[in-house]
Amino acid sequence: MPQLVEQLKHFINERNQCFVEDRQLETAYIRADECESLARKKQALKHRKAEIVKASIEGQVIRQQRIDDEAEIDYLLHHQFLIKNKEKFYMEELLQHRRALFVNEELADDFEVIEDSVVESPQIERLNQSEQKERFSYNRLEAVRYAERWWNDYNPIYRRFENNCTNFVSQCLRAGGAPMSGASNRSKGWWYREENWSYSWSVAHAMRWYLSGAESGLRGQEMSSAKELSPGDVICYDFDGDGRWQHTTIVVAKDADGMPLVNAQTTNSRMRYWTYEDSTAWTEHINYRFFHIAD
What we know:
alpha+beta
């Protein structure tokens, strides 16, 4: 299907130009939620007095399939955005798994493939005081180093999940020296051991409530604003505002206004602005929780 791949390359390049030019990509095969997320990204940049001065993109085909007059191409798309925020420059990166659908040799649809992120978990129990004695010194630099090393890769010593955001953040916290406790009760504490782990290690909803409730060891102090966070801290996201926490990120840097830039997985992202307004999951009902990891 080389001619379809060439058609896809042309579309990808056109899409990439829309990030640096003051125009919208208006085609029949761009979904409304993606057009809206691109518009929100541009508006958020203007509000921050920031701009994308250069955008580059690389694609890699990972699957091709044809049935009669229809064809599918799955591909990985690696975005790099050089952003100027006042006098500060930084590189934002994003990796998407996308699928292009062709009908009669023409591109008919193109969208990001995202697994369902709703995972049920029981109420996380607090540890008793004898299990919660351990104190530690949190090494933020090591947590951030880990987040930078593995944001677009997977450490083979840990299991990889379809929805890997909280597992990734847990690994970062562990790299910073956060102590594990509560094994082997999955609804208790925060821990990972071989082929078993706590809900709070891998499920966004469970981590949000664990950080709120832990009294020693790994614990989070809830802050009133994102600006109060430091590199190595954690942000939790309830995109729909319905009480189900769906996503977790780790702060790796601050922009020129002192606002967090975050790394995350599932949709692998580096130095992404913390609000996630450029995500198709974002809604006007979104809720955030800001956790300063106790040193």
